[in-house]
Amino acid sequence: MSAQTIPMPTAARQPPRSQQLVALLPGTLLLFAIGLAGKGLESLGIYLRAHHHYFPRIEYVLWAIILGLVLSNVFTIPAIFRPGIATYELWLKLGIVLVAAKFVFADVLHIGGMSLVLVAIELALSLTVMTVLGKIFRLPPKLTSLLAIGSSICGVTAIMAAQPAIDADEQDTTTAIAAILALGALALFTFPLIGHFLHMGQQPYGIWAGLAVDNTAEATVTGALYGDLAGRMAILAKTARSAFIGFVVLGYAVYWASQGQAARVERKALFLWQKFPKFILGFMAISVLASLGFFSAGQLTSLGNLSKWAFLPAFAGVGLRTQLRDLVTQGWRPILVGVLGEIFIALITLGMVLAVYHHGAAQ
Amino acid sequence: MESPTPTRKLGFNVDAAAIVIALTFAALIRLNVIHRISW
Question: How many CA atoms within 13 Å lie on the side-chain side of A180?
Fold first, then answer.
């Protein structure tokens, strides 16, 4: 999953809870304002084109991201908005849990299970390749570990989960996060082009995006930019991938502990549970309820629409937190290792998805 | 040295909050307190 990269003031003591919640309001409103502006621009485009005026044919997802990108990269976001912008993670997870209403649980098990197999293969290959690339380009070993974890599993959240477990320093963590976020931004614009070029169907494209794009937010957007079904499939595949986070972080924690460079993990089962992304349980619960006929067709549509409203501020947050200058300020070697590794992962997962769908195993 | 892009965490459990909000809305929709959400 994803975290937030807004500079944090070094406050010595925490303000009261009510004050913290009030502090979230401006940034949260900004997220919704950008999301609504994106939706408004899409509607405006439809209206203008219907009346024979030119307007770019861009969907609300991309508008929200573009507006966020322009705001955060051209202007300086005032500090008052920063706490609330971090809530984009809440809206993203809320959208994911609610979108489960559009899945029949049997499909979750079938496609999710297929994704798990693909994820296992992708994990083994990407961890190996990133480690080899890190050695070739002489990156610090723990930075290599963080990049491998971030690119193979779940982007920023996996890196954040791994940092204390392998006792990585702040600079390596920052570099790895910046590299993963910058590469995620590139995926937003390249994956849909590749998908259209290869005439990929909604389902295989969505699975591919979920398997190859690192952060859940970017994976969701990359899928949604291709279509509604592709967005849902990307979420499903990405969720299956996220489920592995504890195992991979535990593996690295045990390795670095064996090298005497991190604390030993005493209670491994508890460690796995602590690292497990709990929102997946909510996703499963809603999907089970929907499959058992707990909701009418109209109510399922309402839940699906509510998930779209929740994704709106999340998409705005993806644009707002993406700092394009991070592509050049983190040094060329981590970015190059990241780019090479991501290209490898994208090609491997694309090959796997095309093979699975070509042979009809996913039907 | 202060890192250029440290991470900000929210002061509450985001996963739990997402599940609670989602289940609350699901219940309100199921009980017809909320009749329809359009897009």
Answer: 39
The overall average pLDDT reported for chain A is 84
Number of domains chain A contains: 1
Per the model's pLDDT, the better-predicted residue between A105 and B22 turns out to be B22
Nearest to A302 among B2, B18, B29 (CB): B29
Determine the structural domain holding residue A125 and report its residue range. Answer: 99-310+326-358
Query: B3–A303: do the CB atoms touch at under 8 Å?
Result: no
In a domain, residue A36? The reply is no
A306 in contact with B, Cβ within 8 Å: yes
pTM of the model: 0.79
ipTM above 0.85, yes or no: no
Distance CA A250, CA A246 (A): 6
Q: What totals of helices (H) and strands (E) does chain A contain, helices first?
A: 17, 0
Q: What average pLDDT score do residues A293-319 get? A: 91
Q: Per the domain annotation, does A75 fall within a domain?
A: no
The answer to whether position A6 is within a domain reads no
Is A74 contained in some domain? no
